[in-house]
Amino acid sequence: MPDSGTSPLRSALPGTALRPPLPTGPSLPFGPGARTSVPEPAAAAPAGAGAATVPGPNPALDRIVRGPSGMGTAVLHPARREGPPVPSAAADPAAAAVPSARPGTEAAAAEGRPIPGLYHHPVPEPDPVRVAEVSRRIKRWAVDEVEAYPPEWEDQFDGFSVGRYMVACHPDAPTVDHLMIATRLMVAENVVDDVYCEDHGGSPVGLGGRLLLAHTALDPLHTTAEYQPLWAESLLSDAARRSYRSAMAYFSEAATPSQADRFRHDMARLHMGYLAEAAWAQTDYTPEVWEYLSMRQFNNFRPCPTITDTVGGYELPPDLHALPALQRVIALAGNATTISNDLYSYTKELKSPGKHLNLPVVIAEQEGLSDKEGYLKAVEVHNELMHAFEAEAAALAASWPDPRMLRFLRGVAVWVDGNHYWHMTNTYRYSLPDFW
Ligand SMILES: CC(C)=CCC/C(C)=C(\C)COP(=O)(O)OP(=O)(O)O
Ligand SMILES: [Mg+2]
């Protein structure tokens, strides 16, 4: 059943109205190559009214949660959504029908229907001016700077709508330059997944070697003078490595050393997940549900929300990031977003060659359920993960009222919501099964 109550996280952090960044990282502009700056569009219009007051354990927490108020401060509340989560569409096949694809219309208002019963939070329509600018710049980067894809894949690149994706996920990015950090990484991560692992020439065979060498674009080789140039040259030898190398260079310019290290660690986790998935494909092994969930905790969106502070222009200190309670919150958020992908990409993956594992498929097979029952149980798993994420994030926010912690938690939460929005509205890429 869809929930319609207010989530604990959003009760504790209504609008997490922290001021946009007092950057602590390197100053902008950053990254190799000159980038022209465009006038910054106003932040997306906040959806709610004034900030809520939350009884807090101390006045400082209250102030942080309440955020700035008074004339002109509305803009300081990135993507506030004061309302309760929208109950998912009624179990009505018409409501779940999928509109036609509209590739190349990145800045247009988005369509799409949520999965019936899926617990989620709506987001304001991403700022179209930012979407248009990010879309323009990312294409220039992909085509001219790193040659990420051949011309015949242009429709798929446009259909991916990465500009809309990243603007929706990072409403508190202070500038388009900041948004570009996340956008390049998102494209690079998908290039590696497509051309090494999946349906654009990827294969499980030999994946470990390819991934490890690509990982050195993120975590460089330190070796002797004889071998160093050979390695450096290898980073330009395919689209995956060129994309990782360049996206990481821009990211590292903006990130503190500890943020860059955090990201490398998250990418190593991701690559370990790819390898388990590939090994199971090679041996035709269908994992138990808990085994699948373990693999998917690594083959996961985690590296995306965890850069929210770099993209927001501030730093969550490493000691706070390492807290077990925050690690659990991050893992739950990553798992909820990734299972959401399993649900939205279900029909796409059914059509792909061979057996593509995702949570509905694994549940149906391992628990002797019909396809529909497996899918609906996967929706419940997703919802439980979302509730756990929100409850634990709210508890952490209350017990650790450091403004950077609160802003980071809010950043992860809005990333989760933006990710859902993108999946729901990406009707070029995804369509819903006929289960309602
Ligand atoms: C952006 C990023 C870090 C991606 C890494 C893992 C990944 C590609 C996903 C979590 C998405 O899952 P999937 O491979 O199933 O993607 P599609 O369903 O093909 O969109
Ligand atoms: Mg998928």
UniProtKB/TrEMBL annotation:
Q: What domain of life?
A: Bacteria
Q: Which reaction does it catalyse?
A: (E)-2-methylgeranyl diphosphate + H2O = 2-methylisoborneol + diphosphate
Q: Does the keyword Transport apply?
A: no
Q: Which cofactor does it need?
A: Mg(2+)
The protein's matches in Pfam families, at most eight in alphabetical order, are given as:
Terpene_syn_C_2
Q: Which key words are in the record?
A: Lyase, Magnesium, Metal-binding
Here the segments flagged for biased composition (Low complexity) are 39-55, 88-101
The record's top EC class is lyase
Entry-linked InterPro entries: Isoprenoid_synthase_dom_sf, MIB_synthase, Terpene_cyclase-like_2
SUPFAM superfamilies, per the entry: Terpenoid synthases
What are the EC numbers? 4.2.3.-
Similarity comment text for this entry: Belongs to the terpene synthase family. 2-methylisoborneol synthase subfamily.
UniProt name for this protein:
Terpene synthase
